[in-house]
């Protein structure tokens, strides 16, 4: 079954969040094509991954001593209640990631880098050996498609005054590439705050417009469909790029 893991990390949970608007559009386009059965949603602002702690580090170091330990055998390495608790918080996040064919991440730039909520999730799923197949030693994300939707309140490209200040996009590219991702897409939207724009439209097909489906609710809530694009100014080019990425699976 085709599967999509949809993560939002914007602290702004209103309809004004540009990354939430665009990831919602991707998810709706994807669900029109593949249905809702394989869709999973996690709002890292509502249900944040706890920062890693002493127990996580101790369990991770113990696991590293044995090389690449299958996830099912990490339980046997747990030494105390704190480690049991931290593993119970970590394992479900890893399972969600490695079982998904496509991973969609909404990641606005905050202070030139990624949101703390997203970084905490990355730290959790990067448990030693978790993203490596214990038998073949290959990267388990090598066949995973990752789509990252970013936004920022200014220009950071070549020739701009803030060229080189974007520490978010290079980090995310390097992180997922290091873990074997070969199908990586980064969609960047410069958000000019206060500039109104048209509401995003559903993907078109022969004979009419594909009806939108509301994303299935997850443990962290569900993305809301609203009129936010009219206030935040999501441009036509960004909408078209997101719709095309969603339609490609």
UniProtKB/TrEMBL annotation:
Residues 189-249 are annotated as: Disordered. This is FMN dependent NADH:quinone oxidoreductase. PANTHER family: FMN-DEPENDENT NADH-AZOREDUCTASE 1 (PTHR43741), FMN-DEPENDENT NADH:QUINONE OXIDOREDUCTASE (PTHR43741:SF4). Its cofactor is FMN. Its EC number is 1.6.5.-, 1.7.1.17. Binds 1 FMN per subunit. The gene is azoR. GO terms for molecular function: electron transfer activity; FMN binding; oxidoreductase activity, acting on NAD(P)H as acceptor; oxidoreductase activity, acting on NAD(P)H, quinone or similar compound as acceptor. It comes from Kribbella antiqua. It holds the Pfam family Flavodoxin_2. Quinone reductase that provides resistance to thiol-specific stress caused by electrophilic quinones. Also exhibits azoreductase activity. Catalyzes the reductive cleavage of the azo bond in aromatic azo compounds to the corresponding amines.
């Amino acid at each position: 079954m085709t599967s999509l893991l949809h993560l939002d990390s914007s602290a702004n949970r209103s309809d004004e969040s540009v990354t939430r608007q665009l990831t919602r559009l991707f998810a709706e386009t994807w669900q029109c094509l593949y249905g809702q059965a394989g869709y999973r949603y996690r709002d890292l602002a509502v249900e944040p991954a706890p920062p890693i702690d002493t127990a996580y580090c101790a369990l991770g170091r113990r696991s590293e001593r044995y090389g690449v330990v299958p996830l099912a055998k990490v339980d046997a390495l747990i030494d105390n209640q704190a480690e049991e608790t931290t593993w119970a918080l970590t394992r479900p996040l890893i399972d969600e990631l490695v079982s998904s064919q496509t991973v969609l991440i909404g990641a606005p730039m905050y202070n030139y880098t990624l949101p703390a909520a997203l970084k905490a999730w990355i730290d959790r799923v990067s448990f030693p050996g978790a993203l490596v197949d214990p038998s073949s030693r290959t990267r388990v994300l090598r066949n995973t498609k990752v789509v990252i939707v970013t936004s920022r309140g200014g220009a950071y490209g070549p020739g701009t005054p803030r060229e080189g200040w974007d520490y978010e996009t290079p980090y995310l590219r390097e992180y997922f590439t290091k873990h074997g991702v070969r199908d990586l897409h980064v969609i960047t939207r410069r958000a000019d705050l206060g500039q109104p724009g048209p509401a995003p439209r559903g993907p078109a097909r022969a004979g009419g417009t594909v009806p939108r489906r509301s994303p299935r609710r997850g443990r962290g809530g569900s993305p809301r469909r609203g009129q936010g694009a009219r206030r935040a100014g999501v441009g036509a080019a960004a909408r078209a790029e997101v719709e095309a990425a969603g339609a490609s699976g």
